[in-house]
Amino acid sequence: MGINKDQVDGRVKEAAGKIQEVAGRVTGSPSQEIKGKVKQAVGTVQSGFGDAKERVKENAREESRQDAKDTRP
Questions:
Q1: How many helices and strands (H and E) does the chain possess?
Q2: Which of 6, 9, 14, 20 could make an SS bond with 50 (beta carbons 3.0 to 4.6 A apart)?
Q3: Distance (Å, rounded) from C-alpha 39 to C-alpha 26?
Q4: Contacts from 50-57 at CB under 8 Å and sequence distance 24+?
Q5: Is-contact 20 35, C-beta < 8 A?
Q6: What is the residue range of 55's domain?
Q7: CA angle at residue 51 from 12 to 64, to 5 degrees?
């Protein structure tokens, strides 16, 4: 299975959001903590979308391989 831009960007956002959340908690800034949680959620959705795209690609490749195998004499 490959890796696509949405997977990478999503996981980066998740990590950055976690850092922002913890920093907000440590500094006593509820708004930064909330922004971090939101960024994590956005990253989770984006990386999930990237994962889904990869599964679709892999399934299409597998079907193509199967079709080629079925058409051989």
A1: 2, 0
A2: 6
A3: 17
A4: 50/3, 50/4, 50/5, 50/6, 50/7, 50/8, 50/9, 50/10, 51/7, 53/4, 53/6, 54/1, 54/2, 54/3, 54/4, 54/7, 55/1, 57/2
A5: yes
A6: 5-70
A7: 145
Number of domains in the chain: 1
pLDDT tens by residue, the chain, 73 residues: 689 999 999 999 999 999 999 999 999 999 999 999 999 999 999 999 999 999 999 999 998 888 777 776 6
Q: Tokens for 28?
A: 């006593």
Cα Rg of the chain, angstroms: 19
